[in-house]
Write a structure and sequence with these properties.
Immunoglobulin-like; single chain; four-stranded antiparallel β-sheet; 36% strand; 2 domains; immunoglobulin domain; elongated; disulfide bond; alpha+beta; 4 helices; Ig_C1-set; 148 residues; Immune_Resp_Modulators
Length: 148
């Protein structure tokens, strides 16, 4: 009979099949993909409005910003009004990707307009519509109160 050394036996034997670890890795990747795409709980936006800074008032164009924080789902509508009149131009919305901690979104909506036009009006409002709100949420400021 031929004697085999332990080293020779180890070399001749087949390596363990990678099917087990590969399958486990595939399942883990599927879980992570599902987890990252799972819908979060509905969350109402926190809304803030910011008038232009005093420094901006010395330039040709000013910006009024409406900031929405921590909302879900992503679908949201921001409507700008100046003295009660809906604005349709000079608006730029920028939404963040989902927050990795709580799966919510944030959005900044910026209304840009000539400084002379800004100074000729008084009431600036952003009106937010979201599925978590029973009625639109309005944040506003009066320009004459900001200058006081």
């Amino acid at each position: 009979p031929r004697l085999h050394s332990p080293c020779q036996s180890a070399l001749e034997s087949r390596p363990p099949s990678p099917a087990g670890p590969v399958r486990a890795l595939r399942i883990w990747k599927q879980f992570l993909s599902w987890y990252q795409q799972k819908p979060g709980a509905d969350a109402k936006p926190s809304v803030f409005i910011f008038p232009p800074s005093k420094e901006q008032l010395e330039t040709q164009t000013v910006s009024v910003v409406c900031l929405l924080n921590s909302f879900f789902p992503r679908e949201v509508n921001v409507k700008w009004k100046v003295d009660g009149v809906v604005q349709s131009s000079g608006i730029l919305d920028s939404v963040t990707e989902q927050d990795s901690k709580d799966s919510t979104y944030s959005l900044s909506s910026t209304l840009s307009l000539p400084t002379s036009q800004y100074l000729s009006h008084n009431l600036y409002s952003c009106e937010v519509t979201h599925k978590t709100l029973a009625s639109p949420l309005v944040k506003s400021f009066s320009r004459n109160e900001c200058e006081a």
